[in-house]
């Protein structure tokens, strides 16, 4: 019977008894991703499989909405969806022997998520997204497997938090930072050879406000020795393979300022309108065919 059940059905079958649960643990469910969406409205678990199109979706809400009524997913109404959702994740990760890979937390802030970053079950995630969260306990130092960290409209983050952030790609939108705080972030990277920030590949920071005369790049890089682009030291185009070309996947850094760290690591700082890009050149020159392709597109 087990051979004819889908991975989704096997997991629901494991809910029937502890003996069945122990048996399902021995099966290879071909799990691809386990993502969480946490907000004041509810807690959503989405489990995606290889070789099977339909994901497992469990939703925990306080009440029915039109969206919930029309849904065919497994839904539980409860007074404390965050608590029930976390219990479900504890049970599910133990069953499938697979960690949470992506977490999205959406505000406005509410008490149940103020300590969400201290929850150990999400510390192995590869992608962390936080939207409109003003207050949170804990930091990013325990997220050692992060590939990307996206923040939008969340004022709790300070430059010093990024020193302990192991994410390779960081995107910060509508940040209430000034030139001095941007300078402080660069200082964290410059002095962070032995810190998690050393894994950083690129960070894009979009500011809420900039002075009428524009964002002074001289103030942002104050205290660092900078140099203009040298074609013998790095490529002109930075290719972000995790973004499509029309979404900023190709970044022209011909007019950026370069900073060389004592360990030989090179970084470029670019400012355009309200957006600051900081690129670390772990590979100073891409593959020749990729570089010529980029140069032909970006002018």
Automatic annotation (TrEMBL):
User: Sorted alphabetically, which Pfam families does this protein's record hold?
Assistant: FBA_2 (PF07735)
Q: Which top-rank group of organisms is this from?
A: Eukaryota
Q: What are the residue boundaries of the Sdz-33 F-box domain, all occurrences included?
A: 146-193
The protein's name: Sdz-33 F-box domain-containing protein
Q: Which organism is it from?
A: Caenorhabditis briggsae
| Organism taxonomic ancestry | Eukaryota, Metazoa, Ecdysozoa, Nematoda, Chromadorea
């Amino acid at each position: 019977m087990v051979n004819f059940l889908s991975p989704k059905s096997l997991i629901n079958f494991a809910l029937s008894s502890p003996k069945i649960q122990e048996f399902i643990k021995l099966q290879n469910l071909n799990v691809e991703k386990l993502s969480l969406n946490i907000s004041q409205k509810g807690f959503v678990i989405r489990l995606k499989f290889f070789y099977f199109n339909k994901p497992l979706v469990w939703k925990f809400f306080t009440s029915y909405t039109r969206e919930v009524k029309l849904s065919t997913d497994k839904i539980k109404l409860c007074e404390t969806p965050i608590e029930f959702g976390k219990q479900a994740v504890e049970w599910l990760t133990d069953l499938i022997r697979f960690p949470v890979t992506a977490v999205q937390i959406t505000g406005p802030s509410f008490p149940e998520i103020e300590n969400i970053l201290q929850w150990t079950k999400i510390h192995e995630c590869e992608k962390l997204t936080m939207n409109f969260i003003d207050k949170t306990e804990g930091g990013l130092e325990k997220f050692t497997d992060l590939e990307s960290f996206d923040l939008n409209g969340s004022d709790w983050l300070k430059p010093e938090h990024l020193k302990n952030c192991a994410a390779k790609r960081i995107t910060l939108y509508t940040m209430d930072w000034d030139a001095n705080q941007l300078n402080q972030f660069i200082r964290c990277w410059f002095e962070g050879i032995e810190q998690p920030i050393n894994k950083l590949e690129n960070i894009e920071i979009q500011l809420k406000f900039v002075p009428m005369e524009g964002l002074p790049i001289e103030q942002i890089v104050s205290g660092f020795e900078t140099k203009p682009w040298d074609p013998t030291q790095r490529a002109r185009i930075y290719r972000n393979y995790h973004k499509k070309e029309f979404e900023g996947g190709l970044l022209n850094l011909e007019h950026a300022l370069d900073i060389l760290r004592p360990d030989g690591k090179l970084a470029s700082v670019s400012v355009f309108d309200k957006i600051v890009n900081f690129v670390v050149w772990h590979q100073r020159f891409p593959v020749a065919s990729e570089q010529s392709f980029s140069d032909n597109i970006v002018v």
